[in-house]
Amino acid sequence: MSYKLLIINPGSTSTKIGVYDGEKSILEETLRHSSEEIGAYKTIYDQFQFRKDIILNVLKEKNFDINTLNDVVGRGGMLKPMEGGTYSVNEKMLEDLKVGVQGQHASNLGGILASQIGNELKIPSFIVDPVVVDELDDVARVSGVPELPRVSKFHALNQKAVAKRFSKENGKSYDELNLIVVHMGGGVSVGAHKHGRVVDVNNALDGDGPFSPERAGSVPVGSLIKMCFSGKYTEKEVYSKIVGKGGYVAYLNTNDARDVLKLVAEGNKDAKLYYNAFIYQVCKAIGEMATVLCGKVDAIVTTGGIAYSDIIINDIKNRVEWIAPITVYPGEDELLALAQGAIRVLSGEEKAKEYK
Questions:
Q1: Quick one: three-class SS letters along the chain?
Q2: Distant-in-sequence, close-in-space partners of 178: CB < 8 Å, separation ≥ 6
Q3: Do the Cβ atoms of 98 and 112 come closer than 8 Å?
Q4: pLDDT (tens digit, 9 = 90+) per residue, 66-86?
Q5: CB of 96 within 8 A of CB of 107?
Q6: For 2-59, what is each residue's pLDDT tens digit?
Q7: What pLDDT digit, counting tens, does each position of 262-283 carry?
């Protein structure tokens, strides 16, 4: 049976929507929002009606009959830590999305919009693998400072999607494989997937792990403390050095890995050093996750926008392919990943989980 799905993925200045017939996209739009439009609202939740009206108007303009939909799927937001999977949107989830229990982010609107539109059409609404998916082993949470436990915030949607894709393509169940999944985009997350659970992963949202185009990665703690108390920077300014203005942005004033490769090709020595450091740190993180899996790694799966580069993938292979074979799924097809999560539930392959 084929299912028609409306997919909603809110970002800070845009709302991506898609209509899927099964896993086939029949309509995709990126709805841009100006800073003036977004600035008119005090909170993210206040943007709800504005974004809903735009979504429905665009679907009407495209002559799509929303009454043919079977389900609405929203991007999960900053909820409480939760297992991976597809969740039915319930009242408790809506309450936590409205207040932002782990922070205010545009993705919090995903479940809210899906629920409202789904309720009006009398069809189910889901979220799938939000950034707060937390399946860490207890030992992975210990940081050395009791007040600062390690937390799980990463590219869960894409990591889970490509891990399940790899498993399916190789005739295996995700629950029986050990995989290291490397997402390389504006941020980098490297996760150890052990029999269907991400038992260890760096907190990419806050910039831990390898440095990336926009994130500083794990920095020297003592120096960071001195910077924080130097009186030169506000808390917001320090955080922006870690997330947003770190990594390639700080070193080379670009957040595009393609620009870095171009500089390297032109003979820029600084670019070469920082590029080599990026490869070094990503591979070092892969090695760490190999020890988490006790060396029993079925495959290393690379994904994200940076994975489009054959040069980068080959340089990673040269360092870590001795650990396990490398498979590449470039890009980050979030709309398809959300659709696939819903289809697994609607088809009976998985059961929808309940948020508590």
A1: CCCEEEEEEECCCEEEEEEEECCEEEEEEEEECCHHHHHCCCCCHHHHHHHHHHHHHHHHHCCCCHHHCCEEEEECCCCCCECCCEEECCHHHHHHHHHCCCCCCCCHHHHHHHHHHHHHHCCCEEEECCCCECCCCHHHHCCCCCCCCCCCCCCHHHHHHHHHHHHHHCCCCHHHCEEEEEEECCCEEEEEEECCEEEEECCHHHCCCCCCCCECCCCCHHHHHHHHCCCCCCHHHHHHHHECCCCHHHHHCCCCHHHHHHHHHCCCHHHHHHHHHHHHHHHHHHHHHHHHCCCCCCEEEEEEHHHHCHHHHHHHHHHHCCCCCEEEEEECCHHHHHHHHHHHHHCCCCCCEECC
A2: 192, 193, 194, 195, 293, 296, 297, 298
A3: yes
A4: 999 999 999 999 999 999 999
A5: no
A6: 899 999 999 888 999 999 999 999 999 999 998 889 889 999 999 999 999 999 999 9
A7: 999 999 999 999 999 999 999 9
